[in-house]
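PQQ-dependent dehydrogenase, methanol/ethanol family (Paracidobacterium acidisoli), 789 aa
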Amino acid sequence: MLMILSGALPLTAQQADRPDAQTNPFADSAAAVAAGRALYQQTCEECHGGDAQGGRGPSLATGSFSHGSEDSDLFRTIRTGIPGTQMPSFSALPADNIWKIITWLRSLSAGSASAGETVPGDPVAGEATFWGKGGCGRCHEVNERGSVLGPDLSAVGKNPAQSLRSVILNPNAPASPGRRQLRPEAVRVTTRNGEVMTGIKRAEDNFTLILMDLNGKLRRLDRSEIVEEHSETKSLMPDNYGQVLSSAEIQNLVAYLKTLKARDLSKTVQATLPPGLTFERLRNARKEPQNWLTYWGNYQGDHFSSLARINPANVGRLQAHWAVQMPPGPLLEATPLVVDGVMYTTYTTSDAAGVYAIDARSGLVIWKYERRQKAINPYQSNPFNRGVAVLGGRVFFGTLDAAMVALDARTGRLLWETQVADTLQGYSITEAPLAIKKEVIVGVAGGEFGIRGFLDAYDAVTGRRLWRFYTVPRPGEPGSETWTGDSWKQGGGPTWMTGSYDPERDVLYWTVGNPGPDMNADVREGANLFTCSVLALDPDTGKLRWYYQFTPGDTHDWDANEDVVLADQTVAGTTRRRLLQADRNGLFYVLDRDNGRFVFAKPYVRQTWNGGFHPDGTPILLPNWKATPTGNIVSPTVIGGADWANPSYDRIHSKLYVVVTDSALGYRSVSQKYEAGRQYMGGRPFFLSGEEHRSGMKEIDTRTGAAKWVYSTFRGSMTAGVLATGGGLVFLATADGNLIALDAASGRALWHFQTGGTIASAPVSYAVDGRQYVAISAGNTLYSFALPD
């Protein structure tokens, strides 16, 4: 029932956050109504028509609005516009003028009075009718209870009672003049093989139809396979409630619906969702090469695809298959996930972050969720998001104002939101979370802001925090002796890249970034544990099992946040459990992942700070390796030998493909006062005139650390990554916008595509219906490539 009264279009999940402006200061002003009408005529009438009855844009005279019906929602929509539509931003319009326009719009309908109107009837009895005799829950949900076939009615009570009653009694009434019909479009199709199905359209174009059938299952159909398609003129909602329900029952039902003013997250967390992507599937992700189930493709950090249909013999015919343009904003850094034909990816804008669910075969958008930041640090310097995690029918992502969010994977509707830290203190979340068992692990960014880093685990169903491990110990805790005075309070240690997990031994591995301030060790003399380290943790408790520190007392911003690969390698006939990392400090490391014991390390780019290792694996530090007030020249640079550009590990051949930068940089320390929420670098790197700068990708034999071949690139990148495949290819992304396919055996370029945008992400590969695809983001566009049909 109530198919036309959803507060949002089917593709867009309702936002739960609110802008700065909350209350209309002119709500009761008759003068403001008159002024608002004049302002509307000057600003809005061209699109929305005279008296707001509709034109090129929808009618604004009904009291119900597609992007939120609260005064604060309307203010935000007018001020910021709606990205991807013809609705522009009116950010230059004075706030008082916006409020006056809203005051006039409210005067056109009962919308301004609907929130406070008194409605007779028994809401409790109405709720029983809704879930019982009325059968409304067979199509609709309220706070995740019910079906997702029809619109979410969790906030339907914002509509006037008379509108609710009218739709119950006459669901097939046409929309108001100039008003777009919000009722989801029902369709009945017959396919060539004789199958007949009825459902709600979720997305379509000339070639593909995606619908949700009456059982709530998403169905993807090629239009070439459809022999008959009939749009239902009638709503799927029963039109005989006036006969089957008494007038008292209808009044009680309206009274109940009027109590539903907002999505209640205390109830959504209690919902039972379909199983979706299970932990068992995640731990066996290698058995599903058609999917890309975690940020690294699997728990072990491989970032490798065993798919082999695209190979050196046919890659020259690879072509762009589809593209999706994201809202304008910072470069896309997300690595998309693919789960059973649906791709999930993220984006950021100047004040928001969002998630798309996309049909991985056609590129059609199934749903979109956007959340505006509740607070914005004006000194924020890394406004990016690297992706989502999926577990048990839920999609998880972090935000730049340091919150964790869970969505319903079927609809993009909000399930819970938990504030992790305070962005005004320098914290943010940029990495994709890691979902294991029944929890979601997430770290924080902010090493350049003097945060005290930590790693958190949250209950996947409720969002309740389960444990926290601080990467900078306080006095009295193990490792605190490596800090001077109170320097630990601003000690850094960010955890901003997704970790790895050994499901057989149940060990979580997570990497830690630089100490703070970045380049001045005078205020924090010592090794500064656990910065620039890898941690082995108990995933159930967060307790430390072991650690290894790659760069003690670092002054070069050499975060150790790079990917850690969990590899089982045969050495002298015995299987050894190894941990592999090409660290930012320019050395490739092999550790025993059972205990953290140092096995060996070897430079993979030029380095001038390490003179070897002591027997316990701690580095021998060369003279003049630290930043000083006068400056020292050190290799590698601040972007390291490698940064967070995703590497790729071919475990069959024990080869690691790494994006590298080979150069030197001057490191100069300066004295700097700590100010909360502002960058706390403590230094100024300087470039050297005439310094040779080499960039590219190396193939490293992980058994010896030796490089077999190098592919040089025109422009270096700390973000554009690499993907090796079972087809004998290595896909390399470059900052100048190229996606390049290399022969894994020789490093020779076989194919390339210029995307036209700066690439700051890594490719992934997946398959739908047996067809292999390669996807990557470039600029603000997500591309997917495939061989011709």
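Residues 713-789 form a domain with the Thrombin, subunit H fold (CATH 2.40.10.480). Confidence is low (pLDDT under 50) at residues 1-21, 177-181. ok done for today
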